[in-house]
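Hi support team,

I'm filing this because I wasn't sure whether my run with adenosine-5'-triphosphate finished correctly. The job status page said complete, but I'd like someone to confirm that the output block is well-formed before I use it downstream. Pasting the exact inputs I used:
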Amino acid sequence: MADQEDVIELAKRRGFFFGANGAYGGVAGFYTYGPNGAAVKDNLESAWRDRFTVRQGNMEIEAPTIMPEAVFEASGHLDGFDDMLVECPECGASHRADHLIEDNTDVEEAESIPIPEVEELIREHDLRCPSCDAPLSGEPVEEFNLMFETSIGPGTGQPGYMRPETAQGIFVEFPRLKEYARNRLPFGVTQIGPAYRNEISPRKGIVRVREFTQAELETFIDPEEDEPPLHEVEDVEVTLYPAGEQEDEDGEAYTTTVGEAVDEGVIGSDWVGYYLGVAQEWYQRVGVDMDRFRFRQHLPGELAHYAADCWDAESEVGGDWIEITGFAYRSDYDLSKHAEHSGESFTVFKQYDEPKTVERATVDPDMATLGPEFGGDAGAVADALGTLAERDPDAFDADEVEVEVDGETYAVDSDVANFSVEEVTENGEHVTPHVVEPSFGVDRIVYTLIEHAYRTDEVDGEARTYLALDPEMAATDAAVFPLVSNDDRLLDLADEVTADLRSAGLSVEYDDSGSIGRRYRRQDEVGTPFCVTVDRDGLEGDGPDTVTVRERDSARQVRVPVDGVADEIAALLDPEDDRAFEALAAAYEEIETGVETETA
Ligand code: ATP
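And here is everything the job wrote out:
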């Protein structure tokens, strides 16, 4: 298994990612993607868009990253988006108390433990400051809100926040988005973009940062009617780590199919099951090592109170499991909260196939009696009677009914309420959709792909490191090397091959500096699937000019005519075309090289 430090060192050296603002000493939690990392991230986002927007028939939006305070009052982030902070009394370093506990004891998922118990665990295990080793026992643990606050406009402005998740940008625009969906459920809206969290202790490169990219899909459904196309993924095999297994001392993750897990109720929602199946195949496609991957169910204490069933996709990196995606059944929580706080309509009108005649209980309170009796509260008492009639019409069978207004109970003579049941015809009803959300962390997946692809071996007696990235994710499709730089014919041919490959839609790196061995090593380390070398041997025979094509993982080389080389490589890279390098090796002359030992 790759050492995380080696991966991060390679990432920095080869332009994948590195700490940002280095010239000014850097600030923890902010990373810049270099050219190779930016390209991999872009490829990953394209693959996500292809699967979760285009192929699912969803619509993608792009909302602002700064939103006014009212949004986060409604969403609950202002009050509850906190992590547990403990500060070192000696060096002043800030630490996440739950992470300290997880890292130093057998306790898992400490995030859901109440603060007094967390303080007790710190005392009991005599936990110390990871920076200076001072004891943290007795130090207060506090809630720390993770949102970055800003001020919108000049002067004191109005408070705004950098969004801590892209999802809110979709929820607040629901009243307009439902129009684009022609008021029909189910429909899905996606967004890929930055999210900001003022993490207490950013760590592990791009795994926990303060600015990161999320790719989120919000699926709006009618909970009474809409079913996912579960049959499409019911046979997909998944590794599940359900809550029951986590709570059992001998419990462990196991492999099953999506269909079975849903049938047996292990996955509590058909919609969540459906997305686990779709995501499983997508992770495989982009190159996550599925032997180092699992879906972990949230423990009861971890679940948000409104969430029915939540699972995290986790990958194993550097010996730890990290969450790379959260899958949540969020009920109607988000839309109801925004409706309540904004006063706008966050419902969809569901037209019945045929109008329905229904009985509706109503009241017509006699205000001439209620007024003198209840004074300023009379109006509220009348409203409360109306609500009671809808909720519990039988209550009006008694001579007197009781209603509560602002904590006070009022008794009203039933005759004064003028209760009646009428028949009304309804054409439909207003439904607040439920939301099913897969929320992908792009940076953590990029990191996972790089670490899972990291390999070392020996070629021709020399140690090498290479990234066995899936070709769809690799920053560069092919590299072209003229073997020597003082032969015009050879340089012209290398230019011609480069142009042909680019015309075939491939991203190509041209490299004429350093020994050929070094050039191969550079491309191996960034995961370029194919290298094309133009040498004199290829120009000297009687037949057509040839170049060598070298495949990254096996380091095998084949001599291919210049004319067909772009098409051959394009076909090898085409995910729809299952031709393998083997076919090229069978069709053309193979050149002796060799990988000797695979060590990682
Ligand atoms: P964690 O428990 O690791 O802090 P979370 O449960 O708060 O994560 P979610 O709110 O579910 O994360 O966010 C969805 C996804 O966004 C996560 O699965 C993760 O991939 C990504 N993510 C969240 N916080 C960060 C971060 N600080 N840096 C990088 N990616 C992040």
